[in-house]
Amino acid sequence: MKKFTSFVLLLMILVSACKQSTEPTPTEQKPPGYQEDIPWPSLADSPWPMVTHDPQSTMRANLSGPANGVKKWSFNTENYAHYSSVAIGKDSSIYFVTGCKGGVLLMKLDFSGNVVDSVVLNHEFGKTFNTPLFAKDEIIVTNGRTKVLALDYNLKLKWEYETNVQLNFESPAIDKSGNIYFNYYPDVLVALNKNGELLWELHDDNFNPMGRFYSITISPDEKFLYVPGYRVGVVAVDIQSKKVAWTYGDKGGDKTIIVDNAGNIYFEQGKGAYECEFVSLDKNGAKRWGYTLPGLSDNVVPTIDYKGNVYTGQDTLYSFDYKGTLRWKIDVAGVIHAPLTTDKNGNVYFTAQNENLLVSFGKVDSEGNLIFQSTLDYAFVSKTALPICSEGEICIPTLTELFVVK
C-alpha cells in the first residue's frame, strides 16, 4: 500500500511539472516606443472625430486603410470654397465645412456621398480652413468668421463664443474634461470650458498668428499644449500655470506638432534657406534627435504608427524608428502637400503632385514597399488631412471634389 501511495504521489508530481512546463509564457514586453490609443472620454466614439484624429495629433487610425486605391465615389464641391478636411461623426456620417454663395455651411454626407443635412453657420460668403471637431455631446466648429460654435447632433446651436477677430485655425484642441483650446490673431491663446465660457487667455508674441493649417496638440498627461511658434519652432504651454513653459528653435513653425505616449514631440524646424530638420524633443524640450532634410515641406504633418515609427516627407517619404534612426526612404514621384496618415497595420498614405500638376494618392507599407500610387481626377489637392473614415476606406478632400477611396 505504501508503495502504491508513493507511486501515486510521484505520478501527481510529474503531471504537475508537465502542466507547469506547458503553460503559456508571460506576454512579451512591448518594444521601446510602442504606442497605444489613449482613452479620451470627451471625444465622440468615431473612426476619425477631429482633423488630426486625436488630441495628440498622431494622424493614426485604429482601422485598416484602403487596399487597392480605387475610387468608391466622389462628391463634387465646385460650387463651394472647400479648404477644410472632413471629420466623422458618432453617427458615422461625413462632415465638412465649406463656403458658398449662401454663406458658410456645415455639410453632412452619408457613406454613399449623398447630402443628408446642412446648416448655415454664417450668411456671409467666405472660405474657411476649419474642420469640425466631434465631442461626446456636441460639434465644435467656427462660423468662418469670428465665432466658435457648439452644435448638438441635430445641428442646433448650443452656444457661441465671439472673439471679434477673424479665426483661421484648422481645429481646436479638446482635453478630457471637454475644455476647448484655440488661438487667434495676433498672439492670443484661449481656453473655454465645455459650456463655451472663458476660462483664461494667454498672450505671447511667440504664437504663430497665421494658424490656418495647424492645430494645437495636447500631451497625453494633459500637462502641456504644443503650439507652432512665430519666431520659434514650438511653444509649450503649461496648462495648470497658464504660462509658457519653454520654447524651442529660432525659426517659425506653421505645421501641427505630434506627440507620442511618452510625451516626446515631433515636428519640422526650418534650418536654412534650402533645408530643414525633422526634430524630436522630450517633454521638457530637450532634443532627442534630428535629421536634416533637403528643402522645406509645404504642409506635411508627420504621423506615428503603433510600433513608434515616425513618418514625414517632401518629394521623398521618410521613415524613422523611435530612436531617430532612418529606416528607409522612398521617392513618391511628386511633392507631398498634405498631412500623412497611418492605419492600424503601419501602412502610410499620402497625396503628391508632380511637375505636370497631376495629383496621386499612394500607399507604402511599414517596410517601405510601395503598394499602389493612383492618379486622382483633379489636379489641385487641398493641404488637409486624409481621414480613414471607415474600415478599408479613406477620405481625400480636394478643392472641388471629395473622394472616398477603398
Describe it for me?
- The protein has 406 residues and is mainly beta.
- It has one domain (37-405): Methanol Dehydrogenase, Chain A, CATH 2.140.10.10.
- Helices cover 5% and strands 39% of the residues.
- It has one helix spanning 2-22, and strands spanning 71-76, 87-88, 94-100, 103-109, 115-122, 133-134, 139-142, 147-151, 157-162, 173-174, 180-184, 188-192, 198-203, 217-218, 224-228, 234-238, 243-248, 258-259, 265-270, 275-281, 287-294, 303-304, 310-313, 316-320, 326-331, 335-336, 341-342, 348-353, 359-364, 370-375, 388-390, 393-397, 401-405.
- Strands 26, 27, 28, 29 and 30 form a 5-stranded antiparallel beta sheet that branches.
- Strand 16 and strand 17 (243-248) form a beta hairpin.
- It is globular, with a radius of gyration of 24 Å.
